[in-house]
Write a structure and sequence with these properties.
Strand content: 15-25%
Distance between the termini: 92 Å
Order of helices and strands: HHEEHEEEEHH
Oligomer: single chain
Number of helices: 5
Largest sheet: 3 strands, antiparallel
Length: 236
């Protein structure tokens, strides 16, 4: 089932100042209390939930090879993104594959249910849900928690924003330190594919040469053994 964002911020949120009777966060998150209406157990069980969530940075980096991916992964893990890794086992068998490094950390993420979506009275504009004779129901996002609880969630999220930013800065520092390479060392995709093709042909030639040498060695051993058998027959 799909959903929609009621509020999104990519920065720490300043808790609005207001008088005691006001509920600025409840309004900011588009929640409603409908004059103090409560949501009964049956409604909570079947209704769609509204969640307050904080998600730390997730970054995907396409690299030229596993050798290029290794220092990026090391920098990510050292910076605190413990769940980072290299995606797709295809990189182990396909020389032209571009390893994808996923930089991520689940430790900072959290979420909490703060409301439910309730179908209220028919919409005032008289629209339908595409079904003849059926009026569209107005959705009401009912708050399940009070303003104080929302303030606590925002404070926790702001702390996670700070920790996430610190990890990003550490990752940047370690990444640039690990990738202290000259610009002329960068390899374009076409040049890399050509180099890989030549390396593959060279390995194939080396393998064929080794196989020929092995066959010649076996042939020489067979000839020596046949000669020894002939000598033994002459002796008997």
């Amino acid at each position: 089932m799909g959903g929609r964002w009621l509020f999104v911020s990519h920065d720490a949120l300043e808790i609005p100042e207001g008088v005691e009777e006001e509920e600025p966060l409840t309004e900011l998150f588009a929640l409603s209390r409908r004059g103090g209406e409560s949501v009964n157990r049956s409604e909570r069980r079947h209704a769609r939930c509204v969640r307050f969530a904080f998600e730390p940075m997730i970054l995907h980096i396409a690299t030229a090879s596993l050798a290029h991916a290794a220092p990026i992964l090391s920098a990510a893990i050292s910076a605190g993104f413990r769940e980072s890794g290299v995606q797709s086992l295809k990189n182990l068998t396909d020389p032209n594959a571009l390893p994808m490094v996923a930089v991520r950390s689940a430790g900072l993420g959290f979420e909490s249910t703060i409301g439910v979506v309730r179908e209220g009275a028919p919409a005032s504009d008289g629209l339908t849900n595409g079904e003849p004779g059926k009026e569209q129901q107005e959705e009401v996002v009912m708050a399940l928690v009070d303003e104080q609880y929302l303030e606590m969630l925002v404070e926790i999220a702001n702390e996670r924003f700070v920790a996430n930013t610190e990890r990003i800065r550490r990752f940047e520092k370690l990444l640039f330190k690990a990738s202290n390479r000259k610009d002329d060392e960068w390899e374009e995709k076409d040049a890399r594919q050509d180099r890989k093709r030549k390396e593959g042909l060279r390995r194939k030639e080396e393998l064929e040469t080794n196989m020929k040498c092995r066959d010649r060695s076996l042939q020489m051993v067979d000839e020596d053994q046949n000669g020894m058998l002939g000598d033994l027959e002459g002796i008997t």
